[in-house]
Amino acid sequence: MVCPTTASSAERVRPDASTPLALRLVRLSKRYPAGDRALNDVSLGVPPGQVLGLIGPSGAGKSTLIRCVNRLVEPTSGQVFLGAGIAGNPAPGEIELTALGRRGLRRARRRIGMIFQEYALVERLTVMENVLSGRLGYVPFWRSWLRRFPAADIANAYRLLDRVGLAEQADKRADALSGGQRQRVGIARALAQEPDLLLVDEPTASLDPKTSRQIMRLLREVCAEAGRADDSGPGSGRGLAAIVNIHDVALAQQFMMRIVGLRAGRIVYDGPPQGLSPEVLTQIYGEEDWESTTADAGHPGVAPTRQAAGATQHHPGPEPPTDQSMAGAL
Amino acid sequence: MISDRRLRWLLILAALSYGLIALASIEVNWARAADGWERGLRFIGGFASPDFSSRWRDISTGLVESLTMTFTATVAGILISVPIGIGAARNLSPLPIYLGCRAVIALSRSLQEIIVAILFVAMVGFGPLAGFLTLAFATIGFLAKLLAEDIEEIDEAQADAVRATGASWWQLLDYGVKPQVMPRLIGLSLYRLDINFRESSVIGIVGAGGIGATLNTALDRYEYDSAAAILLLIILIVLATEYSSSWIRRRLQ
Hints:
A: Rossmann fold; 2 domains; 18% strand
């Protein structure tokens, strides 16, 4: 099952100069009016299909970083490029997000799905309306106002709800769902945008450990599936790139392909999950007894490698569940 | 709160002596008060035998006028308040629009209803039109301000989520903001309907039509039994609107 090429690519998670990128940050900085530098000269490239975990202590700039990508927070300096993701040829379709005007930004935001810590569903709307709100950038105001979305959008929304195991809940109000269910709606809403990139802000911070793992596994799966659905040609499967802010180190090690550690707005670690040694964690978070945490993640260097290898074969996670088991687990 | 004991006592003493001096400066005409005592008793006596019938025509016209005035002014007020309220919400509007809308709200709130009513009576003459204008104007200050504050207090994460999809400003309003503020907007509108009915009877006294004008006439004619009937009807209607609006607001949550 573990083929040598993918296993070695897990070791080299940092893209080299020839890798096409879905997202490129160039010397990105953000200084808040209060004066503190939340991001300090961050450069980062994310290739298509890579699920990147952003870890770091509170206030390290994780949230600021992903919000600077879709400019919910305006960066102070630096550039953000959204890549075309065409293998070997990223430049022509690349968009500089930081140079866009209001209109251009709205159009670009359609390609960037966002998933939030407290789900950020519109509580008083139905599950279906929430999923369809992912299409807002594509439909004119009057259509969205009258809730007359194109039939294809509605069919796709049902398909996505079915995919995340919530087909039965379409007409319920969002605030009637449990935390795990709400986050599934959040994922379906982001996918409804048919994005090239997912920005995921602490997706499991409000969830219990079991639900957290289900959500992370689902995220990995949908990122891998997106590529398959998109491209028809052989050897496709470029997948959906994602940046996932996460504060749970064990969870990050278990589900992420690549880890970027942020401390005080700077990147202090960038490498494979199995590289998170106690020394590295101390560098990211500061002095603490890390032995138990790293031991938790199983056998570093063995388990995560197998996982990363599995992911490129669209079997993320140690035991890939079926849709039925996902729905049943609710 | 004030740590110095002497200062604390000094302040209490100063406040007490100012209260006493101020109270002493009010002139009381005891003879007039004794006269009025009897008139007051007659007024209260009127409540024992309220007379609905002899002035019923005036009373019913006044009531219909008041209710019409209240309803139309509330609806017009809401229609004007909503855009102004959105404009006065700092998280949705650019600074110049925000300042303009806040100015309108401040103007509407700083002028008391009776003063506005006197102004409109002077402008458009006696009658319910002046009352309609007064109540609509007052509604703007109330509703637009509270709506703006409600919009400023929405859960920004929900709005951010809608923004992040590439939604336009109008779509943000429709999906990110409206669902969050709608129940409160409806509740406030119903509450304002209550207030407007009560106000309509007050501003009638200064000539802005409605049941207040009828009440004023009855009092001028010393017809305390008719006045009592009018007051009882006002109380009844206020109770009814208050009860029904609170019932509707409860159902909205």
